[in-house]
Amino acid sequence: MTSKRAIIVGGGISGLSLAFFLRQAGVAVTLLEKEPRVGGVIRSSQSEGFLVEHGPNSTLQKPGDASDALGRVMAQVGLVPQVANEKASRRYVQKSGRLLPLPTSPWEFLQTPLFSPSAKLRLLLEPFWSKAEAEESVGAFVSRRLGPEFLHWAVDPFISGVYAGDPQVLSIRAATPKIYALEERYGSLIRGAYAMRKKGRVTGMPKGRLISFENGMESLITALRTRLMESDSSQVRVMTGVTVERLTAMPQGGWQVDGGGGVRETGDWLFLAIPAFAAAPLLESLSGVAAQHLAGIHHAPVVSMALGFDRSQVKHLLDGFGFLLPGREGLDLLGCLFSSTLFPGRAGLDRVILTAFMGGTRHPTTVAQGDDALVAGAMGGLRGVLGIGASPGFVRITRYERAIAQYAMGHMQRLDQIRQALASWQGLYLCGNYMGGVSVADRVLNSERLAQSLGHP
User: Fold this and answer.
1) Choosing a second label site near 291 at 20 to 30 A (CA), which of 38, 80, 338, 384?
2) 299-405: CATH number
3) DSSP 268-326
4) What is the tens place of the pLDDT at every residue in 341-355?
């Protein structure tokens, strides 16, 4: 592989981590990014003593697990993770204007007012339901196995928190494959969860931990770029501010990429580490079928809002990860992270920072609202449940018109059709958040696996 050169279009976490793994295999890399900086949506900033995450606030790592590609990267680049406060295990859901903790034990489950007695009794029937014959949405799957209350008050807010999406639209197999696998393998979520827990006790399977970094998630981006730039300049080129305009398969093999400003790069392999909507027009000349399917993958809009307060202005203990809002609550807010509780050093002495999320598929037009309207909408969902008696003294708003890929019904078949349509184009690979998971850890793992599939030791 040492004589190969790869062109990577896209400098987000997928493209950067792929470049890292390919360099480990001795592949020369040219990375093209249209923005002035690499990192994509992963961006951290410091202002007025607050640390703001403009994109992902954390990710789940499983130290020692075979799937822990992120841990392998951190070890290689000398990056030390910041582990979330142990209070992060407490997660709240709003119901009827109250924040209720999600139960984390059988006793808490029996005591919680989040679910009615009949819903709790119905859970006992879960092992007796048969599997569905056809593909199901997350909503249909959960309603069938656990009942509608679990959908409304647990799974619906979870899906909003992860995908900013609608459980009635997302595919159980594509969006939550681990839950789908429990039914496939064990015939029951309860039996499957018990078997996995027992296996973990016997084998010492690693538990996941929520992590970030002392200076925010962008530390990962900085570390990856620094390691890449330490390579021989003839082996690594990172070019920002380059808009790719045309992809050409060379007659003798390999690829040519033309971009704005007269940029022209050639390589043996071409990787599109960009969102589906960005890949679609580039692939139109190669395969109209693939382009059409990629364009059909919806990306939910998201507004991320950092709000800073004096600690005395917030009555709630903020003793947890944060809270999520089911759609039935009828508010613009999707959820809120207690950011300064999760990781120390985010707000300074006697202050707190909250990260509120709005928009998603529930409220797709929210992203177009002005700053004042967004703050008002967020505070309308925060003031009462958190006991906030003042307006935020610090506000930072980040808008994403197309943020999180939606793994809708038929998503797996769509991906298969894209692969089939592009199968004749040798050396062309797709790598984006519309396949293999949307988290930071998922993206790094998928990049590692892609590099390994090409002959990575």
Assistant:
1) 38
2) 3.90.660.20
3) SEEEE-S-HHHHHHHHTTT-HHHHHHHHTS-EEEEEEEEEEEEGGGB-S---SSEEE--
4) 999 899 988 999 999
